[in-house]
Amino acid sequence: MDIALFNLMSQNRADESPAEILGMTVEKVRLAEALGFDGAWFAEHHFTSHSVCPSPLMMVAHCAAATSRIWLGPAVVVMPLHHPLRVVQELGMLQALSGGRVRLGLGTGHQPHEFRTYGISMSERTAILEEGWDIIEKGLTTGRVGYQGRHFQVPDAPIAAFPGTMPPLFLAGGEPQLLQRTARAGGSLFISQGHRRASAARPMREKLLAALRAGGLPETALRLAIQRYVFVTDDESERRQAAEGMLRFIRTTLSLRGEEPARDGTFMRSIPFEGEPSIEWLLENAPIGSAQLVADRLAEDFHILQPSHWSLYMGFSGLPAPRVLAALERFGEKVLPTLRRLSPEPVRLAS
What we know:
Layout: E1 2-7, H1 18-35, E2 39-42, H2 56-66, E3 71-74, E4 77-78, H3 84-98, E5 104-107, H4 112-118, H5 125-142, E6 147-148, E7 153-154, E8 169-172, H6 176-184, E9 188-194, H7 198-214, E10 224-229, E11 231-232, H8 236-255, E12 263-264, E13 267-268, H9 279-285, E14 288-289, H10 291-305, E15 309-313, H11 321-340
């Protein structure tokens, strides 16, 4: 089981500056390395307070200099918003800088306002990603980038920094051909379980398996990477505040899928939606609370969903940075050792 810290880098409060958020992210990654996490992910988003990080590769480069063991990666490079020639060269450079500690997350993107602002058609996002992937793979494995496609035409050219191999690959996207290609390459498929119990997330896993079967792949080809929101605290007041922050985060995430997100400047508004979970439901079901509660929820996920990777997000609460760092430390000291002891054999919980 591979366990990584996810960093969205949201601006939750007006009294937080981007410099403070990014600086605290580096501190979280250093702490995650000291606690024994395997890796750290950095998000890419644009034009809202949902994230102050438009360039996860810059965060990888910065954190590579601040760490020595932990692997680092973008989760994800929104490939349709980038020219692959820059991405392939920066990935090669990052592998050299980090001593080969880079993981690569690729995604199609899902926020219409980002595509509209960049002037990119969302309807072409899958095709653009596939061509970009071709160029990245060719460049990193052969050191050359010549390519003739519908979206990119690249004359044959060498690149100076190339590792000779692709970094371990993770995909965020739902198109069957991308799922199948990732599985054939030995990569992992991301789903966001978020606040859901494992039983509610099982249909997402089944959808991935159906796509693999349709492509002639065995179910054993599925390497499932799950993004989960967790917060460890024994303080009931803090626990409720974290649940309130989770609900705000769920609302924001959903609204970003609309044509125009509800925002004041860059700051996202918290807009209720039909069928949203209550705070009481989150306190009962989400992995927010004591180390034992969080460990039990994640063990349930492990046995039912059988992931090979967890991407764990702890910054949704909106609480001040020192309290988030304390929750991360509690997770590392009290929950992470329990997760390491989980049996890799699939064990079905009683229904």
